[in-house]
Design brief:
This protein has ten helices and ten strands. With 349 residues, it is an alpha+beta fold.
Length: 349
């Protein structure tokens, strides 16, 4: 080994060249160290953070489904009170009620007409208005299990999941046998109960009615579900004036829906006994619940006058309604259609 003093000294020019080479090497090393791996498969740490189950990723939230906005029938209803002009009204046991000449918009008789009470299945008269204003009667509705949760004591037509019925056929069930399964399916299996009921309450406001509020399309007891005799008479009057299909359904004592590929046969007997006990009667809808008692919206037409009666919490609903309707026609100058009472034996006629 040569002595240290024998190592040749580098010139200043050689030192500068050596420094340039070292600097270039350092730059190359730094650049290579910051390059990504050739493929993500070659190095597991090169996979995206989401694929490795760690890190922060953007979460895409689906846009909410728009709430359907249904149409309203804009027709404000107001009855003029002429009840003071008429006397000798029949005895009526109902807690509240009203008798209206819907042709002239005149009240012939009333008892607490604006008192809010449980409406029972008279609710379906408003449900029908929303349905007919928004759905084609031939629209097909597929029944789902979500609509079929009725209790054993509720009135139903016997729908099953997967069956398909038209809006017309569901209305047949709602307005004759007072089918709660049909009324629920009309809401749940079209736009949803919330949207349907919200439209029912908006429809009340569009008619100018303020005594009522609904929480279902059916009419079961609920503290937030109530209606007045005045409002029910107004709803029925609009239905009868605007929708011939409504008048057709409520006037029939029996409707038979033949079996099809979509559903079995349904025999629908109208629960409204008024159709059988008063000759001029042509509708509309009875109802009953524990809180509401017996209720009835009745309708009859003679000589161009359509009378609508409402009795609520009425133990003698059919007797009350028949007597009120017949008395109303007598006040308008028509003869009674009821048989003359037979005097009791031993009493003078």
């Amino acid at each position: 080994m040569p002595p240290l003093h024998s190592v040749p000294r580098l010139t200043q020019r050689q030192w500068r060249g050596l420094g340039a080479v070292v600097a270039a090497v350092v730059v190359v090393v730094v650049v290579l160290a910051n390059q990504p791996a050739a493929t993500s498969a070659a190095h597991p740490q090169a996979a995206p953070a989401a694929a490795r189950g760690g890190g922060v990723t953007d979460v895409i939230t689906p846009a909410p489904t728009p709430v359907p906005i249904l149409n309203l029938l804009h027709q404000r209803v107001s009855f003029s009170d002429s009840s003071a002009q008429y006397s000798d009204a029949p005895k009526v046991d109902a807690s509240s009620g009203i008798l209206v000449d819907a042709t002239t918009g005149t009240i012939l008789w009333e008892r607490d007409p604006h008192t809010a009470r449980p409406p029972a299945s008279t609710t379906k008269v408003l449900s029908t208005m929303v349905a007919l204003e928004n759905f084609d009667p031939d629209r097909v509705v597929t029944i789902t299990a979500d609509a079929l949760h009725q209790a054993g004591d509720e009135t139903v037509m016997g729908l099953k999941p997967g069956q398909q019925l038209t809006v017309h056929e569901l209305l047949d069930g709602m307005l004759t046998v007072s089918a709660n399964d049909a009324a629920t399916a009309m809401a749940v299996d079209t736009v949803g109960m919330d949207s349907f009921v919200a439209t029912m309450n908006r429809q009340l406001a569009a008619l100018g009615l303020h005594d009522s509020h609904f929480v279902t399309s059916v009419g079961l007891d609920d503290p937030q579900q109530y209606a007045s005799a005045y409002d029910l008479a107004a709803i029925a009057a609009v239905d009868a004036a605007q929708f011939p299909l409504f008048r057709q359904i409520v006037s029939q004592t029996e409707i038979d829906l033949p079996a099809s590929a979509q559903h079995p046969e349904f025999d629908l007997g109208n629960l409204n006994r008024l159709l059988k006990i008063y000759p001029a009667a042509d509708g509309i809808k009875p109802g009953y619940t524990g809180d509401a008692g017996a209720c009835l919206i009745g309708m009859a037409e003679r000589d161009g006058h359509r009378l609508i009666s409402v009795v609520m919490n009425a133990p003698q609903l059919y007797t009350d309604s028949r007597a009120l309707l017949d008395w109303g026609f007598v006040q308008l100058g028509m003869p009674s259609l009821l048989p003359t009472p037979t005097p009791s034996p031993g009493k003078k006629p």
